[in-house]
């Protein structure tokens, strides 16, 4: 009899424990936030953002929750709904890849385009890294918390809202001048916009990349422009805009489940031409240019991938080759002195250009002309000076009443000038 009572007691205890466990795992994301001490700062702000709170009640979501220290240290404007919406992911993501990055859609949309967060988990530490605007990195602390309507990852640094293309480019350490995609030219002058051609209703409009959404930019590294510097420096403004437009795909491309960009042909803003994404072994290419760097660069209008080469809309047949530089411009040679026409449509900037907006040949001609002018001016000065001295000496009489004889012609030594070395302008 006693054994039966003991068995019933044990069964009841197990049932109670199971019920308690079930009740604990069935907490919603909102309930979990309110009961977690390290998220008390977040919990205190829930009533201030009804739209954000409403998102947390949806099913199958992921919250990247900044802990108390992260919220107190962030320089971001945390008083906007968009800041909090960006921390909610559309889908339940308890784990992330260890060998590649994964692009995660957030609940934040700008001009109808979804803003992404990028994630990857370290195989050694198990810590997940999240990349957000301006390539800011945030790391998970502790384990993932499962909730009835999704999961929570606590992070030690708040995400940064994605910014426009120009701001994102300016804050990157990966790519600098010379590049026509930069908002400052090679002389350091600020350019108002980085413009490309956009076809609308059958006509071409000039648009700033900052004003576009739902796009992918294939951004050549600095060396890629230098590798074709002799050709790039001769581009007209129209040619440059066309080439830049060819680097912009009119959709957001994100890696697949294996971390690769999906292969195929994609339309660009240079509407008559497409780019081709392919793979050679583990290396991916767009046309003949290698895609380099980590896949983790997002901006307000979409995604950015760096490439080792400049795409040529008039030469799309160059085969991808992992062993070469992917130069698609015939006859191009390397130079560090690359100048581009300014692509801004402002009245001030459209009439000028980077580094004076002149090609290497034009700048060289100006340099030679300046040196020749200096030589002529110097010789003319010597001649005027000599005539003045001769006349002055001719007017001076010797003490014996005679006149000073006029000098003989100038010696070869005095005729030798020392002009500076004539070189190509830089």
From TrEMBL:
<feature type="domain" description="FAS1">
    <location>
        <begin position="26"/>
        <end position="159"/>
    </location>
</feature>
<keyword id="KW-0732">Signal</keyword>
<keyword id="KW-0812">Transmembrane</keyword>
<protein>
    <recommendedName>
        <fullName>FAS1 domain-containing protein</fullName>
    </recommendedName>
</protein>
<keyword id="KW-0472">Membrane</keyword>
<dbReference type="Pfam" id="PF02469">
    <property type="entry name" value="Fasciclin"/>
</dbReference>
<dbReference type="InterPro" id="IPR036378">
    <property type="entry name" value="FAS1_dom_sf"/>
</dbReference>
<dbReference type="GO" id="GO:0016236">
    <property type="term" value="P:macroautophagy"/>
</dbReference>
<feature type="transmembrane region" description="Helical">
    <location>
        <begin position="364"/>
        <end position="385"/>
    </location>
</feature>
<dbReference type="InterPro" id="IPR050904">
    <property type="entry name" value="Adhesion/Biosynth-related"/>
</dbReference>
<keyword id="KW-1133">Transmembrane helix</keyword>
<feature type="domain" description="FAS1">
    <location>
        <begin position="183"/>
        <end position="311"/>
    </location>
</feature>
<dbReference type="GO" id="GO:0000329">
    <property type="term" value="C:fungal-type vacuole membrane"/>
</dbReference>
<feature type="signal peptide">
    <location>
        <begin position="1"/>
        <end position="22"/>
    </location>
</feature>
<dbReference type="InterPro" id="IPR000782">
    <property type="entry name" value="FAS1_domain"/>
</dbReference>
């Amino acid at each position: 009899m006693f054994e039966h009572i003991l068995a019933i007691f044990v069964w009841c205890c197990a049932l109670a424990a199971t019920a308690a466990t079930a009740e604990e795992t069935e907490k919603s994301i909102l309930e979990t936030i309110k009961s977690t001490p390290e998220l008390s700062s977040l919990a205190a702000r829930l009533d201030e953002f009804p739209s954000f709170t409403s998102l947390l009640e949806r099913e199958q979501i992921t919250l990247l929750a900044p802990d108390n220290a992260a919220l107190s240290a962030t320089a971001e404007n945390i008083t906007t709904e968009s800041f909090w919406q960006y921390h909610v992911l559309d889908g339940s993501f308890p784990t992330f890849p260890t060998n590649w990055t994964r692009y995660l859609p957030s609940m934040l949309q700008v001009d109808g385009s979804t803003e992404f967060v990028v994630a990857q988990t370290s195989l050694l530490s198990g810590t997940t890294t999240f990349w957000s605007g301006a390539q800011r990195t945030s790391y998970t602390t502790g384990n993932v918390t499962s909730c009835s309507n999704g999961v929570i990852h606590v992070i030690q640094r708040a995400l940064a809202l994605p910014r426009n293309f120009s701001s994102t480019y300016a804050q990157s350490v990966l790519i600098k001048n010379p590049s026509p995609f930069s908002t400052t030219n090679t002389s350091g002058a600020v350019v108002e916009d980085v413009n490309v051609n956009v076809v609308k209703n059958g006509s071409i409009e000039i648009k700033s990349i900052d004003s576009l959404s739902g796009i992918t930019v294939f951004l050549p590294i600095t060396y890629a422009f230098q590798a074709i510097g002799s050709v790039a420096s001769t581009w007209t403004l129209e040619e440059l805009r066309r080439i830049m437009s060819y680097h912009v795909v009119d959709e957001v491309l994100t890696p697949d489940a294996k971390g690769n960009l999906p292969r195929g042909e994609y339309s660009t803003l240079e509407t008559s031409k497409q780019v081709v994404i392919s793979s050679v072994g583990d290396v991916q290419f767009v046309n003949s240019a290698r895609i380099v760097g980590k896949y983790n660069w997002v901006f307000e209008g979409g995604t950015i991938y760096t490439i080792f080469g400049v795409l040529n809309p008039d030469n799309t047949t160059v085969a991808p080759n992992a062993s070469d530089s992917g130069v698609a411009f015939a006859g191009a040679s390397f130079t560090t002195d690359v100048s581009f026409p300014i692509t801004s449509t402002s009245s001030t900037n459209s009439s000028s250009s980077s580094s004076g907006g002149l090609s290497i040949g034009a700048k060289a001609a100006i340099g030679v002309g300046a040196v020749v002018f200096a030589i002529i001016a110097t010789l003319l000065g010597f001649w005027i000076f000599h005539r003045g001295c001769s006349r002055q000496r001719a007017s001076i009489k010797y003490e014996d009443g005679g006149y000073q004889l006029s000098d003989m012609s100038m010696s070869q030594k005095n005729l030798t000038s020392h002009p500076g070395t004539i070189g190509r302008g830089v």
